[in-house]
Amino acid sequence: MAAARGVEIVAEGVAVRGFEGTVVADVDLDARPGSLSVLAGPAGSGRTALMLALGARFKIARGRIRIDGTELPRGAKAARRRIAVARATPAIDLEERLTVGELITERRAIGGPRVTGESLADAFDLVDLACDRRTLAGELSRVEQLLLLLALAAAEQPAGVLVDDVDAGIAGSDLERAWYAVRALAHSGPTVVATSTATPPPGPAAPDLVVALPGHDTHLRARRAARR
After folding, report:
1. What is the pTM of this model?
2. What is the DSSP letter of 145?
3. Concatenated DSSP letters of 16-47
4. How far apart are the first and last CA of the chain?
5. What are the beta bridge partners of residue 24?
6. DSSP assignment of 210-223, as one string?
């Protein structure tokens, strides 16, 4: 699978409004190409809406978002073509009644010529997932479901990937496996924006940037700051 160059996503003073008013306000973020950014916060903190806004899929109330230097909403359509959504609950998630093979066929239809047999094989190797295509998605463990979603998105060879609820229903060694897969995806080229309830633990799979919601504290990894 050819390494995709990641997009740069820059947010300045971004606010996102939900049904009950503004849920996220004054968020600044600079996601460099090929980096992993995590939006961490409890349910209702606006993390999914903010993630979708950073991927040009949700309208912001105020502030600015630029993707590769182009301010949204101008260029939003082009950005959506380059940024794949692995999961955005509840709207985009696995159809548990479908088999792995059926989900692959569905992704081929969505991704078009970018999704090839080679890109699929490489994507499954990247996230370290092996499963029978006849297996129902609902029979997979929670971490396997997440890895499958990541692999299907990665097979499109995108410049960016959005993945919601990384730690939903996953704990212990499975959670460590999940974060390693998300980090491996970012290392392969695309810029990854993920959400979780808890801040990911430190270690080799730790993100480059964490935005803690609510409160919007931003934390950079030391190694990323050193590259500036």
Report:
1. 0.92
2. H
3. EEETTEEEEEEEEEEE-TT-EEEEE--TTSSH
4. 29
5. 16
6. EEETTTTEEEE-HH
